[in-house]
Amino acid sequence: MLGPGKADLLAGIRDTGSISAAGRAMSMSYKRAWSLVEEMNAAFGTPLVISSRGGAQGGGAHLTEAGEAVLSHYRTLEQRALAAGSEQIEAIAALLDDMSEGK
Question: Domain range holding 20?
Fold first, then answer.
């Protein structure tokens, strides 16, 4: 229902006011970005993103109160997971191949 990519898309919509601009910033087509927004809106009891069509007023998109809350909770969870798993992350990083030799 929500992962790092969708969270980044929500943050992009919040920051740009646009689904297409948020998608472009992630090298994603508008169709793909819109599809992800629809998935998120359907998965939650309340839509996370509200959009309006273009025209004279310009259109755009914004996060709802629920969208802001979900994004905030997700970012907090990311920070806690990173802090709790820092030892394991360092251990995994130590096992990676050295890519400096062009492997």
Answer: 4-97
